[in-house]
Amino acid sequence: MAGAMNEEPEHASQVRAIALALFDDTAELHGGGPAERRLLEAAALLHDIGHSMRRKPHHKASRDGILEAEFEEFAEREQHMIACVARYHRKAHPKPEHRIYRGLAPADQTIVRELAGLLRIADGLDRAHEASVTWVKAQLRGDVLRIAVTQRFPCEEDVWGGMRKRQLFEQTFGVTVEIEAE
Q1: d(Cα 59, Cα 29) in Å, to the nearest integer?
Q2: Which of 22, 89, 99, 133 is placed for a possible disulfide with 47 were both Cys, Cβ 3.0 to 4.6 Å?
Q3: Is residue 171 domain-resident?
Q4: Distance in angstroms between the alpha carbons of the first and the last residue of the chain
């Protein structure tokens, strides 16, 4: 799906792996199942395709590219959700005045917020685009989600990147995120 559209397929694969691990470990927070996991996977693989389009900020170009693509495996509603999750992997949080987001049903808007929160952290954990993270484990203790990462080599930039992009997740789920390299 993403290979031909992505300038950095290794980064997309790394973000996908981290995002899915976080999704699995935070199921008690979001309650999502296989359908939502599949949407997150697609958004993770496609979140940076906007770089190849050389127009607009890349997160908005990624949204537009996903909307313009023909994916037989996704219904139009799902494609719009994937586009929104990819669009919100950086910069602005979802807002009612955003056209595509506004067109989603309220339940789908909630899913987009949840998945975008996960995608932001996953993308941040590969900020250096060097795939330093080899393992990630998230555990909820009270109102704190502790994310432990193991790295192939120390990369403070990736831990900082994950921390920098935690705000949407924290606002959506009402928890504090802590990330620690072990």
Answers
A1: 26
A2: 89
A3: yes
A4: 33
Rounded to an integer, what distance in angstroms lies between the CA atom of residue 97 and that of residue 149? 36
Question: Which tens digit of pLDDT belongs to each residue from 14-36?
Answer: 999 999 999 999 999 999 999 99
* Token pair listed for 182: 């072990």
- Length of the chain as a residue count: 182
AA identity, residue 80? H
Taking the C-alpha atoms of residue 50 and residue 28, their distance in angstroms, rounded to an integer, is: 32
CATH number at residue 72: 1.10.3210.10
Q: pTM for this one?
A: 0.94
pLDDT in tens, 113-136: 999 999 999 999 999 999 999 999
Upper half-sphere CA count for residue 118 (Cβ side, 13 Å):
30
173 is in which domain, residue-wise? 9-181
pLDDT digits (tens, 9 = 90+) for 68-126: 999 999 999 999 999 999 999 999 999 999 999 999 999 999 999 999 999 999 999 99
Domain count, the chain: 1
Longest distance between any two alpha carbons in the chain, whole Å: 44
DSSP per residue over 27-67, as a string?
HHHH---HHHHHHHHHHHHHTTGGGGGTSS-HHHHHHHHHH
